[in-house]
Amino acid sequence: MAGCIFCKIAAGELPSEKIYEDDEILAFNDLYPVAPVHALIIPKVHIDGINMAKEGQEALLGRMLLTAKKIAEQKNLKNGYRILTNVGEDGGQSVKHLHFHIIGGRKLEAKFG
Ligand code: AMP
Questions:
Q1: Which of 38, 46, 97, 99 is catalytic?
Q2: pLDDT tens digit string along 16-28?
């Protein structure tokens, strides 16, 4: 989608520190990490957020989650980690292209909000 920074990253028009790529998915390091490991997994196709995912995209969403698991294994996050996706304004979503955060490498606070 025009003007979407994650579409530009997916298209190689903006740089990123790539961790994983296949025909449908890209994973890269977050520019402003909140933990020693902070990666983002995005679909290459533009989806505004999980609230805009459609019937028929189940396989893509499942693949994103399994990619999160693989990245956690690669990064040796044996003690655990967090997968999260912010949705919309109240959810704190700043980039309107679906992304799963994988955060780990330190003890995370077990609270929300
Ligand atoms: P959210 O606030 O859930 O929408 O998350 C957006 C995330 O994208 C934030 O953690 C930002 O640090 C990250 N981010 C923004 N721009 C870039 C970029 N060009 N490359 C990598 N991460 C980015």
A1: 99
A2: 999 999 999 999 9
